[in-house]
Recover the amino acids of this structure.
């Protein structure tokens, strides 16, 4: 099998994978805020709006440690 | 020290703000000189015959592009990084002596690199590859500077309080990775001092000279994969990072759709890298690559407009702010130019259009409506927003800002309209045949016809430079303007008369 | 999974890197397997020609002149046969350029002479009325750097097997040997021999005197390079 063929299979395979990943990402973005323990992505806009050093983080790093 | 509340530390941001302004003036001034050299060749010997070698168009041209890209734009990127990075990660540089040291080292090494680039380009030491003109010693210095920035970038992310990375951080990370990958591969070269001849002599000739690892068509392919994506990761990705922070912050509006911003990010990452082939249409690179470059360039409209529309929609219901604040004007017009430029680019990448547009001034016009209208406006807006927070003073003059805005907008419009006409005129004249099938015009006909457009372009560039000098003056005076109360700074920046 | 990625900067960066390197992997790397092979009639640059190529690069001639003839009637009428990939096999770096402020130069050796270049580089508007090209007077006094060109010849011969001192097939069936010196002194002697041929066709007395003294002004090397573009 020549390099061109590897190239073609590689291209097809990777593209198919990325298309799949993109669509599942879109599904994830829009479904997660309805689930328990999910996140509303739109909240992350507040990271910029409330960015004083004394403001409470939107998702504090300490959250993880408690779990 | 002990009982003072923790504050963001903008020391490094201030340093880079300074170089943004200074190198911006240098880059744009050289650009204006170049523009007038094309309209009036006498300008080539502006400092006399003796210095003609150093004031000549061809010697100055790489200096212009590199001063604007690696000087003005990258200073702007880093100034905003050392500002935005701390804020959206909610951690101060003052908390880590190491990060502070890396930040300062980053700045000073960068400054040494800039000096080396200016000297070497004026001496004519260049590899000739556009935006990668530097010989290997400077390449190594650039890699070191880049790695230091990377350490600082990931170091700051490592000690963050905000678990989720804000979209701007995504874009800064992508800038770091993208440029690192592109720069390394495009600058693979072998120093000629390594060669030894039959007589056993080595270290022959200039010690800094090197030869590219790639030859001919391959070299072109790698160069334009780099060249096009240097635009992606220098002029698009980090500037998008800026607008996703500064526009919401200045206007007090949340991003219209945060999800769209994430999708556009991945779209841009995937699609942009394929589009480099459009610089090589009808050249000797394989046809399928040319077609690929063309197709992906058109697809690129989607993620680009995804970001741009998201920004404009962020202003939904708040359009009175555009009228009221010159700072918002800069950002909204910047987004608009981004949309314009990312529509124009794909049009030029269509093969039949490219047949006319390639090698002409239309391409130059396209670059400049992107860089003057989008990159320049956005970086100036970012610095305007940062100044009151960094210096704790109100912006010196709002009316000066508004005047600057209109002068520069006029400058950009003159620039791209004249280049648009010049490019299409020249492209059409090159290909024109008379009724017997002979070429209708000699080459010089297609040069002299451009004189008026070159003059208009020079004037447009000059207006932009004048506006930039007003910006520099405004920034300088801001440092001594009226102090502001901390509480005023939630969103809209305070401005003096 | 996605949400996890967004909170782990290292793995996030790996993800971004995979996505951005995809295009390069597919588009660029495989093409390197098939090395750029020279077409028949393409020979490596001689010492003086390569010196001239460095002068061309030093002055960024490529900022205004392309070296790529596209396959259109208007271009082949104006500049000659369209470019073939193999013709660029010895071009490191490539000099296609991105802007044609002046005409293409890939085949300029076919229709311009030493004499024409000499006058034109001194006073472009005097030769081509209306020209906006600046004069390059310093090339008549600056000394060309043959040593560095020689070092480059050695490098490409050593690392990329460029056939110096070996027969290269020509279009008429003959073979051409492009010589490369065995020592710095020999390389300079070869370049000077070429320079004498060029200088014989030139008028500038200072240039002629310099070549007679054994020096090579930049202009001589540049013209040798431009004449080699065919």
């Amino acid at each position: 099998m020549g390099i061109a063929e590897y190239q073609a299979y590689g291209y097809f395979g990777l593209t198919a994978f990325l298309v799949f990943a993109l669509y599942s990402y879109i599904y994830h973005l829009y479904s997660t805020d309805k689930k328990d323990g999910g996140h509303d992505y739109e909240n992350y806009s507040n990271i910029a709006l409330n960015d004083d050093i004394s403001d409470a983080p939107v998702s504090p790093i300490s959250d993880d440690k408690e779990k | 020290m002990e009982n003072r509340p923790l504050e963001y530390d903008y020391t490094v941001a201030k340093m880079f703000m300074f170089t943004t302004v200074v190198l911006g003036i240098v880059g744009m001034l050289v650009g204006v000189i170049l523009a007038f050299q094309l309209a009036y060749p006498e300008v080539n010997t502006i400092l006399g015959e003796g210095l003609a070698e150093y004031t000549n168009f061809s010697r100055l041209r790489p200096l212009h592009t590199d001063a604007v890209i690696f000087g003005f734009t990258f200073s702007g990127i880093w100034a905003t990084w050392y500002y935005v990075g701390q804020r959206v990660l909610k951690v101060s540089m003052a908390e880590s002596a190491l990060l502070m040291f890396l930040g300062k080292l980053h700045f000073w090494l960068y400054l040494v690199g800039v000096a080396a680039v200016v000297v070497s380009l004026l001496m004519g030491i260049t590899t000739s590859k556009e935006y990668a003109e530097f010989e290997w010693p400077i390449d190594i210095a650039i890699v070191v500077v880049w790695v230091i920035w990377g350490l600082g970038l990931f170091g700051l992310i490592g000690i963050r309080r905000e678990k989720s990375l804000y979209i701007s951080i995504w874009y800064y990370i992508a800038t770091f990775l993208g440029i690192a990958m592109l720069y390394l591969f495009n600058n693979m070269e072998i120093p000629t001092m390594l060669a030894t001849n039959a007589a056993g002599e080595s270290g022959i000739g200039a010690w800094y000279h090197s030869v590219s690892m790639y030859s001919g068509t391959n070299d072109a392919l790698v160069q334009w994969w780099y060249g096009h994506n240097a635009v992606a990761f220098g002029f698009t990705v980090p500037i998008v990072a800026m607008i996703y922070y500064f526009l919401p912050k200045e206007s007090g509006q949340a991003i219209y759709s945060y999800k769209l911003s994430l999708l556009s990010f991945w779209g841009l990452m995937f699609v942009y890298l394929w589009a480099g082939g459009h610089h090589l249409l009808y050249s000797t690179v394989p046809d399928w690559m040319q077609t690929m470059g063309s197709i992906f360039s058109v697809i690129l409209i989607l993620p680009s407009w995804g970001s741009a529309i998201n920004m404009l929609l962020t202003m939904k219901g708040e359009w009175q702010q555009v009228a009221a604040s010159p700072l918002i004007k800069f950002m909204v017009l910047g987004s608009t130019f981004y949309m314009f430029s990312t529509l124009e680019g794909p049009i030029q990448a269509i093969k039949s259009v490219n047949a006319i547009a390639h090698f002409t001034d239309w391409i130059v016009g396209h670059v400049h409506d992107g860089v003057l209208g989008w990159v320049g406006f956005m970086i100036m807006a970012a610095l305007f927003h940062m100044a009151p927070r960094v210096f704790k003073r109100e912006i010196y003059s709002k009316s000066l800002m508004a005047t600057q805005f209109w002068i520069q907008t006029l400058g950009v419009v003159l620039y791209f309209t004249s280049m648009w006409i010049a490019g299409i005129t020249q492209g059409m004249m090159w290909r024109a045949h008379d009724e017997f099938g002979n070429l209708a015009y000699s080459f010089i006909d297609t040069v002299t016809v451009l004189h008026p457009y070159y003059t208009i372009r020079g004037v447009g560039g000059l207006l932009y430079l004048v506006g930039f000098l007003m910006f520099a003056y405004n920034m300088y005076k801001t440092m001594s303007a009226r102090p502001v109360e901390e509480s005023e700074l939630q969103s809209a920046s305070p401005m003096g008369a | 999974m996605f949400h996890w990625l967004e909170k782990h900067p290292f793995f996030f960066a790996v993800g971004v890197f995979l996505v951005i390197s995809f295009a390069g992997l597919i588009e660029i790397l495989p093409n390197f397997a098939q090395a750029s092979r020279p077409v028949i009639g393409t020979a490596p640059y001689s010492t003086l020609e390569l010196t001239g190529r460095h002068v061309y690069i030093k002055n960024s001639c490529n900022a205004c002149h392309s070296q790529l003839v596209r396959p259109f009637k208007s271009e082949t009428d104006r500049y000659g046969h369209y470019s073939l990939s193999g013709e660029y096999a010895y071009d490191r770096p490539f000099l296609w350029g991105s802007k044609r402020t002046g005409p293409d130069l890939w085949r300029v050796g076919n229709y311009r002479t030493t004499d024409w270049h000499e006058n034109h580089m001194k006073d472009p508007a005097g030769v081509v009325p209306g020209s906006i090209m600046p004069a390059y007077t310093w090339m008549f006094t600056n000394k060309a750097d043959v040593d560095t060109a020689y070092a480059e010849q050695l490098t490409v011969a050593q690392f990329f097997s460029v056939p110096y001192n070996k027969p290269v097939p020509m279009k008429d069936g003959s073979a051409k040997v492009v010589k490369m010196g065995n020592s710095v002194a020999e390389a300079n002697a070869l370049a000077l021999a070429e320079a004498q041929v060029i200088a014989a066709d030139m008028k500038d007395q200072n240039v002629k005197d310099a070549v007679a003294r054994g020096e090579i002004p930049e202009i001589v090397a540049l013209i040798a390079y431009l004449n080699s573009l065919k």
Remarks:
- Chain A touches chain C at residues 3-4, 6-7, 10-11, 14, 18, 24-25, 28-29, 32, 39, 59 (CB under 8 Å).
- The first helix of chain A runs from residue 3 to 31.
